[in-house]
Amino acid sequence: MQTSTLIIVLLLLSSALYYLGRQRSLTVANGEARKLHSLPSYYGYYAALWCLLPALAILAIWNGFETKVITTLVVNGLPDAVRNVGDAKLGLIVNDIRNLATGGMTSVDPDPAMIAAAKHYADLRGISHAALAVVALVIASIGGFFAWRHIATGHRARNKVESIVKGFLLSSSTLAIFTTVGIVLSVLFEAVRFFNQIPITDFLFGLQWSPQMAIRADQVGSSGAFGVIPLFVGTMLISLIAMVVAAPTGLMAAIYLSEYANRKVRAVVKPMMEILAGIPTVVYGFFAALTVAPFLRDTGGILGLDVSSESALAAGLVMGIMIIPFVSSLSDDVINAVPQAMRDGAYGLGATRSETIRNVIIPAALPGIVGGMLLAVSRAIGETMIVVMAAGLSANLTANPLEAVTTVTVQIVTLLVGDQEFDSPKTLAAFALGLSLFVTTLILNVVALHVVRKYREQYE
Amino acid sequence: MEIAMNTSEAVMSPESTIENGVLAPVRDAVGTPLLAREDARMTCRNVNVYYGEKHAIHDVSLDIGKNEVIAMIGPSGCGKSTFLRCLNRMNDTIDICRVQGQIRIDDQDIYDKSVDVVPLRAQVGMVFQKPNPFPKSIYDNIAYGPRIHGLSNNRTDLDEIVQGSLQKAGLWEEVKDRLDQPGTGLSGGQQQRLCIARAIAVSPEVILMDEPCSALDPIATARIEELIDELRSNFTIAIVTHSMQQAARVSQRTAYFHLGDLVEVGPTEEIFTNPSHKLTEDYITGRFG
Ligand SMILES: Nc1ncnc2c1ncn2[C@@H]1O[C@H](COP(=O)(O)OP(=O)(O)O)[C@@H](O)[C@H]1O
Ligand SMILES: [Mg+2]
Q1: Cα A364 to averaged position of ligand 1 atoms, centre (Å)
Q2: Residues on chain B touching A349 (C-beta within 8 angstroms)
Q3: Domain check: are A230 and A265 in the same one?
Q4: What is the pLDDT of residues B233-244, one digit of tens each?
Q5: Are A258 and A332 in contact (CB under 8 A)?
Q6: Beta bridge partners of A381
Q7: Is some CB atom of chain B closer than 8 A to the CB atom of A369?
Q8: Which residue in A107, A303, B11, B280 is a FRET match for A239, CA 20 to 30 A apart?
């Protein structure tokens, strides 16, 4: 039986047990639900869960080990000559056998020994599936039956069902945490492999980035240098330009919207801002590469400046525009959170609107605004698409916004695009970069959240 | 000398005030009782206030005398705050609010186009229901008004203003050693006295107070009431309160508002012992409120 069919059957069985459980609870209470400890439906859920959960657990465990066990059995059944060819080759053979068994393509023409092995494999799989179906259904029935038998007037079904529900909720909430931990660990693991080959000090303090490694000894100019400083300087330069654009514009937009704009203007401008926030970054990338960058180069040409066709300035400007709605909506929230009483107090003393904003509202909202800005910075640092398209790939160590620079994210992308060997420092460098980027934005976010939270407490 | 000018023609019959337990509109039945005063600091004539379509204040005329404390009482939602906020044009900050009629201070109509609200609000200060010190130091809270109005030439002047205001508000002894600490760190009653000091710092002539004690405990309330009594010699005070005892304790005159109408105004003692209007009597004796 297919796994999906089995799951459907189990679901049907457990719904049947729901009705049986409910029915039985009413029977033991002689039809008077008041005599029961819990509502009848809880007895139904109780029986249904006892039917479903153990069977699903068996199903999951079984599927986890099935392939491994069957493969071992098949390999043991192979002729010795085939079996002792080394791990890498054996892996290929096992792959072929699996493909043959499921009717797919193979890398070599199959010989009789392999065809036999494939048949063996298919047989074992058939047996395993049948056995699983039987075991799962038996366990479901036993679980359901005992739960059903257990139902009595004093039985605390509600408490048990609710603790299971609580367990589900808890596991959902830990899922995100475990995923994060998993991601961090996998990146960390690969990064450690990188640092085994390249000293961490060279990585952190090196001023040169050129990850091309010589594959053959006679190749020229490809020694491989993994200094991360030019990348971080490029990232900071672009983020700085972006924030120079986004911070004042976004903040002033937020002030206008929350303090000056009447309802009609708000009703038009706010949704427009949200549309701006919804544009995919790759579209901003086109805009930067095809419109802004050539415009800057031409303008620079007229002014006698040497602007490269891919420049930090183009990427930074467009990224700044992208972040404006982010900054303005965060600031808008914080400004609106300043109590009306603050404004009244200032107006009541004869302060004008701009004095009130400058002297009372902004200082009161400042911690929140700063927090919002830090979140925006971490967004700018992590942004990839615009810089890939508009900032270039050359790792120049420069503070000149008119030159091409590259960023951490762009380098990660270029290191991992195309065919890769996953044990060369060049590829592993991507993980080291990812880790350093992760640590940077993590610190920024923690600081930002801390600042924002501190601000929240102020008016309570 | 006080001149009673009761323009009300139809005095309402007691039965018509409450129909089936629901308050009937009394707008037409209640005229505009007016006590014009010779020593009036502010004079209001035929003031009408609208929130959009809603007519919140009906044709109110009232004088506020020099160095008096006038209390405004009435059931909640009757327009006390709305009327009070007309007196320094705080209603300007509400988009949908429209004010008609005349409100004069020193023979100047404050709703005249030529009048700037900035000096007006320095002249007519305000204290709010909930203490609302700025999240700044105690010193900066008081210094804020003098700074924006350019009242001091140098730091010494400003120090004097700050100290004088805190002294008048009876807060100096409690805070003189921690002027640089945040005003929000004070207790509720201290915060409210800080707000009063902040209002005093710009030397207003009139101080408006909207239920200034409603967020305070009885002891803090008693201190504020004492303070109001002391301030009377230098300022004119209009206070909205929901507590009749408070009105009786601090005010010389009391105005009773009902559903946007000014029903009756007179010496506080008279209003509380011998109200001339049935609605006032019902409110004071606790028939509704
Ligand atoms: N900002 C506003 N917008 C619309 N209606 C308002 C506003 N403020 C007050 N009102 C209405 O005006 C009437 C008087 O309110 P208010 O002056 O606050 O009463 P009080 O202070 O006597 O309790 C109430 O009916 C209230 O609903
Ligand atoms: Mg009020």
Answers
A1: 27
A2: 121-122, 125, 144-145, 148, 198-199, 202
A3: yes
A4: 999 999 999 888
A5: yes
A6: none
A7: no
A8: A303
Q: Which atom of ligand 1 lies at the shortest distance from residue B78's CA?
A: 22
Region B106-126 average pLDDT: 92
Chain-chain contact of A341 with B90 (C-beta, under 8 angstroms):
no
Tokens read off for B154:
């140098």
Q: Whose CA is nearest to atom 8 of ligand 1?
A: B82
- Give the pLDDT confidence of A9-39 residue by residue, as tens digits: 999 999 999 999 999 999 998 888 888 888 9
Q: Which residue among A262, A345, A363 sits closest to B128, beta carbon to beta carbon?
A: A345
Residue A107: pLDDT band with limits 50, 70, 90:
low
Please tell me whether residue A412 adopts helix, strand or coil conformation. helix
Instruction: Report d(CA A315, CA A240) in Å as an integer.
Output: 11
Residue A185: give the domain boundaries.
157-197
- Tell me which chain A residues have a C-beta less than 8 angstroms from the C-beta of B145: 349-350
pLDDT value at B258 more than 50? yes
- Answer whether A262 touches B (CB < 8 Å): yes
Looking at the structure, tell me whether residues A236 and A351 fall in a common domain. yes
How far is the first Cα of chain B from the last one, in angstroms, to the nearest whole number?
Answer: 32
Query: Going from the N-terminus, what domains does chain B have, and what CATH number goes with each?
Result: 2-8+38-284 (3.40.50.300)
Whether A364 and B133 lie within 8 Å, measured CB to CB: no
Whole-number Å distance between alpha carbons of A395 and A312: 12
pLDDT reported for residue A239? 93
H-assigned helices in B149-210: 155-168, 172-175, 188-200
Q: Which residue has the higher pLDDT, A193 or A459?
A: A193
Does some domain include residue A207? Answer: no
pTM of the complete model = 0.72
Q: Which residues of B touch A360 (CB under 8 A)?
A: 134
Last residue of a domain, one of A146, A179, A197: A197
Token pair, residue A284, equals 């901003």
Provide the domain count of chain A. Answer: 3
A229 inside 8 A of chain B by CB: no
Q: Is residue A108 scored above 70 in pLDDT?
A: no
Q: Does residue B5 surpass a pLDDT of 60?
A: no
**Inside any domain, residue A218:** no
Name the residue among B90, B126, B144 with its Cβ closest to that of A359.
B144
- pLDDT of B146-198, one tens digit each? 999 999 889 999 999 999 999 999 999 999 999 999 998 999 999 999 999 99
SS3 A209: strand
> How high is the pLDDT of residue A222?
55
CA A387, CA A412: separation in Å to the nearest integer? 12
Tally of CB atoms within 10 A around A215: 10
Amino acid A43 reads Y
Best residue in A349, A455, A459 to probe B by mutation, most B CBs within 10 Å?
A349
Could you report the per-residue pLDDT of B14-73, keeping only the tens digit for each?
A: 434 444 433 333 333 344 455 567 788 899 999 999 999 999 999 999 999 899 999 999
Who lines ligand 1 at CB under 6 A? B 51, 54, 56, 74, 76-82, 94
Q: If you average pLDDT over residues A257-275, what whole number do you get?
A: 88
